[in-house]
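Q: Sequence in, structure out?
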Amino acid sequence: MAAAVAAAGRSWRRVSSFTGPVPRFRHGHRAVAIRELLIIFGGGNEGIADELHVYNTVTNQWFLPAVRGDIPPGCAAHGFVCDGTRILVFGGMVEYGRYSNDIYELQASRWLWKKVKPQPPSTGSPPCPRLGHSFSLYGNKCYLFGGLANESEDSNNNVPRYLNDFYELELQHGSGVIGWSIPVTKGILPSPRESHTSIIYCRKDLGIPKMYIFGGMCGCRLNDLWELDIGTMTWSRPETKGTVPLPRSLHTANVIGNKMYVFGGWVPQAAEGEISAQDSEWKCTSSFSYLNLDTTEWISLIPDCPEDNSNLLPGPRAGHCAVAVGTRLYIWSGRDGYRKAWNNQVCCKDLWYLDTEKPPAPSQVQLIRATTNSFQVKWDEVPTVEGYLLQLNADLPVSGIPVTGVPEASLLSSQGAPVIHQSQQSVNMVLPPEIKLDLHGHANNMVPNNVHVSVSSNSLLKLEAKENKTEPENTVMQETTKNHTDSKGFKESNAPSFLPACTSGLQASANHTNYVDESTFIMQSNRVSPGQRNDINEHLPKTTPLRQMATVKTRERQWYDVGIFKNSSALVSQFYLLPEEKASISNKTEKEDVPDYRLLKKQDLLPGTVYRFRVAAINGCGVGPFSKVSEFKTCIPGFPGAPSTVKITKSVDCIHLSWEPPASPSGNILEYSAYLAVRTTHIQENPNQLMFMKIYCGLKTSCIVTAAQLSNAHVDYTARPAIVFRISAKNERGYGPATQVRWLQEMKTSSLK
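A: Exactly. Output:
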């Protein structure tokens, strides 16, 4: 138990740096998450707030969206649920003594409010105006339970009535509601209450959704747990193990994985260890527990105790909001309750988050660009992480390679901890005037300055945030691909007409559309006469496939830290050598320190050498599992670089493909070759291994791709559906790396703007 408390204390983080218009601090507000966005509405302190505030957890930025439509009045202690990108608001207090039973819908993709009017139930009356109720979503239905009503018609004469009625609200797909119904339930209903919590959890192995109600207020505070089997509509009181949290109201409950996390709230003031049945004396708490929903066992992470003077934990509060973003729990504001005797509610002014478990493994490391002594690499972002640990190992024995000196002290923090590396390069983008580039949520996503995006005036390239999967059919994505070249290179007439893709090649990431992906392979010299196909088995590059490489002699490899990076990209030219008696950071226990990189030697990458990479994400719980292994090779000096700034212009019966010469030709460019991935029987048997047909060879930096050629194109589905082109340059030594272009072929659902 002590270890659990210590772990919870270490994992809490207070957000101390943010930008944008911070909402005034409050209690009685509600919040939901749409991907990385926290959306907060209502509540108040000295008046009820009616603004909609959004906090981006990636960029640490607050903003006020420009809402329109049937904008609801401000409310507090209301119901607030999220279904995809629409949000529903029900009820709440709109002014002192006056409660609501209205329903408003917000389409967050357009920030459009609409008041909706559900049909009344076929039997009985619709829900009366109320506050402090629970409003939970599962599937296409919302479940309303309890709350507090005002029996008096005079709002100045508040006559409270606690409720335990239960309603179902059926939603229309996408937008709108159908109507209320009163389900026929079995078992004993929970007692009337308000300011309780309700969550819905469905076990993966059983597939039966259940609703859990915990705590609340009904003259005194409660800590009873109720379960509703939504399939059979049966209420029950599950037996629990462990220490049940103190009775409370105005707390929060959130489901992450199979756990219901309960934080804060009003709890009775204990007198000499006794809790009075009439809890006239009460206080705010910062206690933190979870209920394992599979075993119904309570685990106390932070017990009810005096305020944490070290400021390492969130302070006591009630009426706050708590939102889960992935496996991270965010808590914002609420009232602290300490000055009630002065008739002055003071609200907390802080935002905290807690990582509840280690992050999952990132995607495989992908190559953006290779040089003779460096790699520009990237991987897909993992939500809610603080950094990434990148490691490599090499084919050659490390002891046989010259080593550079000790790294500069400027690369480390003043405490001697490893620095969080951030790329300093920026991306050059050439976009038509009508194109809007939304880098919202990607402030830390830098790419090298030698990566370009360009489209012609009659072609459309729409680049949006990572969640936006809408792509016009003529959207272009680039990769630089290299297959392995022999030292002799190509003869002038020997550029292959058909080129099998390298088995270790990586495709573009489906989660990054705000910059161009360029992956690198060196093209193998295959002597093929014009019109002749390569024999697939004979001419495959002699490299180990990734699926095999990840399992071959993994235990025998020595992994070396490249560094800890804040972003999901890195420029790798060196790595750190750990003393033989020390393990990597990934093998250290939680009690051991991260290696002091100031004391370690660095080693440069060598030309023509194969390196294997893996990456792990880091959050407040520690280093997560590593990705699958990727393998890349540094370039051999003297070959030309890859063509850049590829443009695709679509015409009625053809497309026009153009490019810029390599930035580093390493001699005179003798010719260019362009290739198109085509359909073959081999691809049907092995879709990860593309076959390319040469469609152009010459000195010009452009070519026409005819409709007849496009009719034979293979549509690659390894990421987003796309037709794939490759373009490479040749100098006196041979062909260098090829720039791979993915021409996206279908529209997908748009995301939040």
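Helices lie at 2-11, 536-539, 546-549, 681-685, 707-711.
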